[in-house]
Write a structure and sequence with these properties.
The protein is 67% helix and 0% strand. By secondary structure, the protein is mainly alpha-helical.
Length: 66
């Protein structure tokens, strides 16, 4: 989901249905555990920032008062 994941930063993207590319990405994650941990941490922070209750309230109030 390129709208949510930044390739190499918060995850690894691959073309849908491309099993060989998926295999390559999984090999990277399995061989570089710290990379997987770091991307997972960055992804969690990004989701928490983008979809937090405060963000929803902020956007809701902007919509009402705009």
């Amino acid at each position: 989901i390129p709208e949510l994941i930044k390739d190499g930063e918060t995850g690894l993207l691959f073309e849908a249905g491309n099993v060989k590319e998926l295999e390559e990405k999984l090999r990277i994650l399995l061989s570089q555990k710290q990379l997987a941990i770091d991307m997972g941490s960055r992804a969690r922070r990004a989701v928490e920032e983008r979809f937090s209750n405060n963000r929803y309230l902020e956007n809701y109030l902007k919509m009402i008062y705009s």
